[in-house]
Design goal:
Elements: E1 2-5, E2 27-29, E3 32-35, E4 41-48, E5 56-61, E6 65-69, E7 76-80, E8 86-90, H1 98-103, H2 109-123
Antiparallel strand pairs: 1-2, 1-6, 3-4, 3-8, 4-5, 7-8
Length: about 120
């Protein structure tokens, strides 16, 4: 699945002219879809990537994007939470430790991230 950034929103949902994370007109592969218990939809995307550096991955409001590809990666699985929210993302990322370890830059998380990220990119080039 891919999305194209069509507007920039701050955390309150108000349109802004600049974002340090997103670029207007840029297409991003979606790494997860998150739906909160209130129905708010967000996409997890890599916002910056440079050789030799840990990639920046963040959760962004779906209202910032238009969907450009509806191909669902084969490694995605649905996880339903007790609070009625749900996430759709790679199975191996659903281990309770993974996302926290990734954001903490735990070296054990990187190969797991890279394997699933490459699968997503390969299946929707």
């Amino acid at each position: 699945m891919k999305v194209k950034c069509i507007k920039l929103l701050n955390a309150d949902g108000k349109e802004v002219e600049f974002s340090p994370w997103l670029t207007l007109g840029r297409e991003y592969p979606v790494l997860s879809i998150d739906i909160s218990d209130s129905g708010k939809i967000s996409y997890r995307i890599v916002t910056s990537e440079r050789d030799g550096f840990w990639p920046d991955m963040g959760l962004h409001q779906a209202d910032c994007f238009e969907v450009t590809s509806t191909i669902i990666p084969s490694n995605w699985r649905v996880r339903i939470y007790k609070n009625k929210g749900l996430s759709i993302y790679p199975d191996t990322w659903q281990d309770n430790w993974f996302l926290e370890a990734f954001y903490d830059r735990d070296p054990k998380a990187f190969p797991i991230f890279q394997q699933e990220y490459q699968k997503i990119l390969t299946e929707d080039p």
